[in-house]
Amino acid sequence: MSKKRNVLEEEEKRKLTGENLGKLYGIYHYIIPYRVQFFTGLLFLLLSSAVLLTFPYMVGKLVDVASGKTWIINEISSIALILVIICVAQSVISFFRVLLFTRVSEMAMADVRKDLYQKLMTLPITFYDSRRTGELMSRMTSDVTMLKDTMSITLAEFVRQIATLVIGIIFIFYSTPELSIFMLATLPAVIIITMIFGKFIRKLSKITQDELAASNVVVEETMQSIQTVKAFTSEVFEMARYGSSLKKVVIAAMKGATYRAGFISFLIFGMFGTMVAVMWYGATLVQSGGLTVGGLMSFVIYTTFIGGSIAGMGDLFGQIQRAIGATERIMELRGEKAEDIGPGGAEPFPDVASISYKDLHFSYPTRSDVEVLKGLNLDINPGQKVALVGQSGAGKSTIIQLLMRFYNPTSGEIIIGDHTVSDINLNALRRNIGIVPQEVILFGGSIKENIRYGNFDANDEEIEEATRKANALDFINTFPEGMETLVGERGVKLSGGQRQRIAIARAILKDPKILILDEATSSLDSESEYLVQQALDVLMKGRTTIIIAHRLATIRKVDKIFVLNQGEVVESGTHDELSLLNEGAYNNLVKLQMMEPVESGL
Description:
This protein is of the alpha/beta class. The chain has 20 helices and ten strands.
């Protein structure tokens, strides 16, 4: 875990090469629609930096005037008034600068998020097989937030620090060249030592973070497996394991703190020592008449600004490096190949579809060495109700996924009516296939919104009729909010049978030509199963239906049963026909299911 985290941190930053900086353009082109506001904000930023740098100069003038003859009261008031004007101007300019940069970054990042989401919606299932949801969410959240901060804060600060550094150095060399040369003779040594020491401190900080991450893994594993922990009365063991991990965190943290304390002490000594040396030399110049007191004060303030700019550059460079990494990941996602929709002017979908699988071979892209379907041949007549049965891994779900073109076969073809599925527009294909899965997952909105997902153009009367046919209207009316009842995340506020009937109502509203039932009643109690089965009987009328069956008792009345074994059809026929084959695969499955209650002791 720790090693993985270190790798991720190393990958997060990118070297500031011309090529890597050029990658930022892939994101910054989102600014183009808002370029007027962006460049106006940039202008305000430069004005803000210029106004800020007049402040030390005027302070020096004020000190010089104040240290002169007392009768120049008007000049003191004039300089003080100018300083007030500078403060007001700085405040007003900063307000508009922050407002403009925030507006540009928020709008540009909203466009980035929208484009990313649109891209995710167009990507094929094969893409999601090789990506974790957390990783994709990180692209949408962490990476985009990093770019937003870069646009609104880092970029502005970077330009400000560069302007402060350049203008400040030019001014001090112009006004006090001797003192500037003396400062440059003493400061670089401190800066170089600081950079070397700082790099070492960061390595120690990483070790502490790695140890903390390891201790968090203990907590995460324990929380996820809390029932196992309590079942094995391992609470004391887990507490000891976590305590041991925390000891390592403390040891690493104290080692880092020791070096960090030494580093801070050196930094204080070095910076203050340098400042004392500069002040000493400046005082000698003032005493000899080579510099005024106000000039010395201006120099000190300018060097403070310059030092602050140099100190801030390290963090800014780190943020830019991380922004380049975030840009790479986002642009990589945007560059993924979208799902092939197929021909736009495809033939009309047949009213009652026949389906044929011809010599179908298939391996999943993530397991290309394992052939799931091995020359599968299967014919389904128009309006026929067929069932697919077989052991787990026989290829039942794969047959459905290929029909819906979630994947493309390695070889062979699937024909619907007179057309191969690759010749049918993908959207048209999926619009005409309805599915009621075994595990129904609903969206977190209302019941009505979940049912309308089958047909967004449906009106309230059509939705109500669909729920009536799905045997769902009675339980929906028992809720105080009726159709507007919120189902909760993934439909957790509804029972399994209620979720199934919502899914059936959604499929009825979709009115598909082909219906897929993935053992839609296997996890229900007897009463719920009866109601759901009635709804399914209504839904299957007049449609070509494919049923994935695990409980063989639910498919006795289908027109045909296909028995699968290791990616091939080994038997086909009706329930009665296949039951007569004493040594047949289907008959063996029936016997096994009849024996299950006895073997389990029920």
